[in-house]
Specification:
Layout lengths: L4 E4 L10 H16 L6 H17 L6 H13 L7 H9 L13 H12 L3 E4 L7 H10 L23 H11 L6 E5 L14 E5 L16 E2 L1 H12 L1
Parallel strand pairs: 1-2, 1-3, 3-4, 4-5
Helix pairs in contact: 2-3, 5-8
């Protein structure tokens, strides 16, 4: 089937980064913000990871935002919910300090513009474990604007996460397309390449590859931005 829609991952794909280094910097900024409100750093980090696990396990019956804050309330008690405004402010402001841990790939910026000029639709299939403010900031760090993408997922607007295949089903449902007319581009073998099981084309961007289980990637089209461009052009010619 003709390719009509390209789905991109963000972190490590359109936004170059070392995921571990970025996470360390992000948590350092978060703990500094929350410390005056009585949050002990290691417990807060552990709690964020537990909230993330709750989002990954979410079945879509509630938003990921609700799943996260339900877990946070379970850990810290109902009183902690009053601090949601403080955390929201962090993602609008101090979180931007993590930009220095990220790179920039002008070839990918140009490629997204090129494929849009070819009439292809673009969407951002980034794991929705961050608030919209943080996602929109990371989109801009990568050299884009949020409206460059027809859809981008955040923890407020969806109740599913990668690598749950239902996440991809929900995206194509919202876009009104079939899996066979989509290409998923990502750097994570487990979270992004699973889209192939739906019948999507996939491309593994290897600059910042995440391959937790040392899986064989030879069956996936893969390579750098130049190889990705070649692959996309071959799909539309």
């Amino acid at each position: 089937m003709k390719l009509t829609t390209v789905l991109f991952d963000l972190d490590g794909t359109l936004l170059p980064m070392d995921n571990d280094e970025f996470t360390k910097a992000y948590f350092k900024l978060l703990c500094k913000k929350a410390a005056p409100f009585g949050y002990e750093p290691q417990k807060l980090i552990d709690s964020v990871w537990k909230g993330t696990a709750a989002m990954v396990a979410n079945d879509g019956s509630i938003t990921n935002c609700e799943a996260f804050w339900n877990k946070f309330e379970e850990i810290y008690g109902t009183e902690a919910l009053k601090d949601k405004e403080m955390f929201d402010g962090f993602y609008r402001n101090e979180f931007n300090g993590a930009k220095e841990l990220c790179g920039f790939n002008d070839k990918l910026v140009s490629l997204v513009k090129e494929i849009r000029s070819l009439g292809l639709r673009t969407a951002l299939a980034t794991n929705p474990i961050f608030p919209a403010a943080a996602t929109e900031s990371r989109i801009r760090w990568a050299g884009f604007e949020p409206d460059d993408f027809e859809l981008y997922t955040t923890y407020e607007n969806i109740g599913l996460s990668k690598p749950n295949i239902a996440y991809y089903k929900e995206i194509i449902k919202r876009l009104g397309v079939s899996a066979e007319e989509c290409l998923m581009v990502g750097n994570d073998v487990d979270e992004d390449m699973i889209a192939a099981s739906l019948g999507m084309r996939v491309f593994l961007l290897t600059d910042h590859i995440i391959n937790r289980h040392s899986g064989d990637i030879s069956s996936y089209p893969h390579g750098d931005a130049d190889k990705l461009r070649e692959y996309i052009i071959s799909c539309v010619e």
